[in-house]
Amino acid sequence: MKGVAAAGVGAGAAKILSSSVANAEDNTQYKGPFKMLKNAKILAIKNADGIDTMGVVTPKGVIDIRAVARKLNIKAPYTLEGLLHSGNADAVQQVIDGADKSQVAYLDESKIKHGQLFKNPSQILCIGLNYSEHVAETGMNLPKVPILFNKYNNALAGHNCVIKLPPKEVSYKFDYETEMLIVVGKKMRNVPMEKTLDYVAGYCTSHDFSARDLQLETPSVQWMIGKTLDNFGPIGPYFVSADQVKDPNDLSVQTWVNGEMRQNSNTKYFIHNTQKILSYISTFWALNPGDVIYTGTPSGVIIGMPKEKQVWLKAGDKIKSKVGELGTLEITLA
Question: What pTM, to 2 d.p., does this model score?
Answer without folding.
Answer: 0.91
